Amino acid sequence: MNIKKIIKYILIAIPLLFLAKCSVEIAMYNADLLPSINPNPTHKMRVHGNFPFEDEVKFDMGLLYVTTNPICDKKNWLAGIRFPHRFMKSFPATVKDGVFESDIYLDSYFSGMCGWQAHGVYLLSKKKKDDLIKPNTNEKQTDYKIPILDRYIGVIAHESFKGQGKTLDVECIKRNDVFWKGFPKEMTLTRYYCKYLGEISRPRDRGSKLKANISSSQKEVEINFIDKGFKEWKK
Fold first, then answer.
1. CB neighbours of residue 187 within 10 Å
2. Where are the domains of the chain?
3. What percentage of the chain reaches a pLDDT higher than 70?
4. What is the DSSP string of the chain?
5. How far apart are CA 9 and CA 5, in angstroms?
6. pLDDT band at 14, cuts 50/70/90?
7. Handedness of CA 39, 213, 170, 84 (dihedral sign)
8. What mean pLDDT do residues 17-31 have?
9. Is the pLDDT score of 99 beyond 60?
């Protein structure tokens, strides 16, 4: 075989090998778009604090995991932005005498090729009582599932920062929401809406700067839920 043929075959083989490598990597990354469960998590964080809605609301604590490897991002080519993939893990919470407690594990999933990492702390709440009322009657509407209300409370930085460990104050209001207004299925649902009293970032564009209020080095986080009463919906 002469030198020219050898060079020709090499030039053909190099891009084919590169494409094969890329295909294998893409397949592996796609397979990691859902995190793999860690059967023995050890990175525990205790979340606790005041919760004045014990009689009406039951809830779990939610921990949002996101991918940190850009190759796994969801991309919006038209807008020129990219988003990490997300996955929510819930942890049971107990409430007694107006105080709640929950143990969350930051390493509930393996990092994997996509670099899954705990990012945000959520309140996943739903009312204990179904108070959906049919219009113009006092009859309870019982054939409607009350949705879980997820409220973004904290952002986790995987490094220490100044001011970490402070109590997180969260204000909650009670509000009536009307569904299918003007239709035969019209119904009213009383909901709680909670908001952290501070500035934190949202898990949006990867290029946005992280503003955190929780450090992964903390052993516990105190959240103070504040009852701000009933407020009418303002359009």
1. 16
2. 1-31, 35-230
3. 69
4. --HHHHHHHHHHHHHHHHHHHHHHHHHHHHHTSSPPB-SS---EEEEEEE-TTTTTEEEEEEEEEEE--GGG-EEETTTTEEE--EEEEEEE-EEETTEEEEEEETTSB--TTTTEEEEEEEEEEEESS---B-TTS--B--SSPPPPEEEEEEEEESS--TTTTPPEEEEEEEEEEEESTTSTT-EEEEEEEEEESS----S--TTSPP--SEETT-SEEEEEEEEEEE-----
5. 6
6. low
7. negative
8. 46
9. yes
What's the token pair of residue 62? Answer: 């939610």
Which of 196-234 are b and which e, b meaning 16 or more Cβ less than 10 Å from the residue's Cβ? beeebbebeebeeeeebbbbbebeebebebeeeeeeeee
* Integer-rounded Cα radius of gyration of the chain: 24
Q: Return the sign of the alpha-carbon dihedral for residues 149, 153, 156, 157.
A: positive
145: Cβ–Cβ under 8 A, 6 or more apart, which residues?
A: none
75 pLDDT higher than 90: no
